[in-house]
Structure formats: structure tokens, C-alpha cells
Amino acid sequence: MSDSRTNIQRRFDGAYGALYDGVVSRPAGLRVVSIGFGFDTVLPEIPRLVRAAYADAPTQPLLDVPCGAFGSLAHGAEVAREADVVGVDLADVMLDRARTRIRELAPAFSVQPVRGDALELPFDDESFGAALSINGLHCLPDHARFVQSVARVLQVGGTFTLTTLVDRGTRAGRGFFTAMRRAHILPITPPAQAALDAMLDETGFDVIEAVDGRMFVARRLVRR
Ligand SMILES: C[S@@+](CC[C@H](N)C(=O)[O-])C[C@H]1O[C@@H](n2cnc3c(N)ncnc32)[C@H](O)[C@@H]1O
To answer: Which residues, including other chains, have CB under 8 Å from residue 151's CB and lie 6 or more apart?
Structure first.
């Protein structure tokens, strides 16, 4: 396992996980928090990006990783899909919240929360027609391995919709990342934007949409 479950639980149990989930599942919450990140332009785009990912390859399974409490469902539940949505996360507390959300939103398609490691996804090669990762990459201890793990389980021509913090090298950003590492939210510093884009290209992804914010980036990608 890439990181002990105890460490993950410590990060996402309790107040932080609940607060994060409450914000990311609400468009108004995302707009308010974007102000704290210097009017970041990516966070308010998350509902639209999630709906786009849910609408991709609707007859093929969609992977949401790490799914957390399935905040994506708050935006994607109304999208017409024939195939399942599968979410992977390591934290039991987030998966419990996910099960509650699935019951409450009761989408017309099946949603399966699975406990697993994002760096060692427990699926066959090319199992999914689309993949989604909202603010998960920066929570993982090996960014390149995560991107490779997603690419392996994604079909050629499948889309990967990703948002993540990036390191822009500013003093304020570095201070924030240090505090987040001390709070065990971030295992390592997020990638620089150029390093992230090079990693995605080397792994076999072409960019179909890019949004560059003050501290976050969004990429809509297609696997070649
Ligand atoms: C900031 S949350 C994002 C969750 C979700 N995408 C959302 O936006 O609501 C990050 C999630 O990563 C999960 N996580 C951290 N390390 C993980 C790993 N190695 N494998 C799977 N999930 C992991 C945490 O449990 C947490 O739920």
C-alpha cells in the first residue's frame, strides 16, 4: 500500500474531511473558497467539469479516483448514464459518507464505492471509458504513479478530467503547502504546472481543455 490507512484516516477523518466534502459538493461553497485562493478560476468550474466527465462515454464505466465522499455525485447525478460509476478511496470514513450520499441522491445509474489505493487501482487494463479526479492528485505521495495508474485502466480514446493544486513557486503558496503537509493533508508538495503537463503528455494524454487558476489547474484529457 502506498500510504498507511491510518495516515489517510488521520488526514480525512473528522473536521477536515467533512468541511472539504461540504464545500466541494456545493457550487456556492466552491465560489466562496475560490476567493481564499486568490479568486482561483478552477474551483468554480468543478461542477461543469464533473458534469462533462459524467457525460463522457455514458455506456462505459466511469472511474472517480480518489472519490472521497462522492462529492462529484452532487454535480453529476442528473446526467443520463447507462453504465456504472465506480469510486475508489482508501479512507473508510469518506466511503461511509459516500454511501450516504449515494442513498440520498439516488442517481438513475449504479454507483459503487470501492476501498482501494489510487496508486494500485484494483481493475483490469482498459476497464473504463472515462475517469475523473477532483483535487485528489495533490493528496497522493507519487503523482506520476497515479497518472500511470489511471492511464492503465482507461481505454484508448477515453477521457480523464483532472483538477489539482499546483506549485507556482510563490512564497504564499509554499507557506500554504508547508502548513498542509504539517496537517497531514498533503504528503508532498504539489507538482509545478509544467511538470504536471509533461507527466500527462509522457503518460499518453492529449489535452482537450485547460483551465489555469491561481493555485489549481483543470485538465480535460484524452488517452491516445
Ligand atoms: C481532497 S479529497 C478529494 C475527494 C473527492 N475527489 C472530492 O472532491 O470530494 C482527497 C481524497 O484522497 C483520498 N486518498 C488519499 N490517499 C489515497 C490513496 N493512496 N488511494 C486512494 N485514496 C486516497 C482521501 O481519503 C480523500 O478522500
So the answer is: 160, 203, 204, 205, 223
Stated as kind and residue range, the H or E segment containing 156 is strand 154-165
C-alpha 135 – ligand 1 centre gap (Å)? 8
What global pTM score does this model have? 0.95
Query: Which domains does the chain show, CATH number per domain?
Result: 5-223 (3.40.50.150)
Residues with CB under 6 A from ligand 1: 2-3, 8, 12, 20-21, 24, 66-69, 71, 88-91, 94, 117-119, 134-136, 139-140
Write down the H helix ranges in 114-206.
143-153, 171-182, 193-203
Each residue's pLDDT tens digit, 196-216: 999 999 999 999 999 999 999
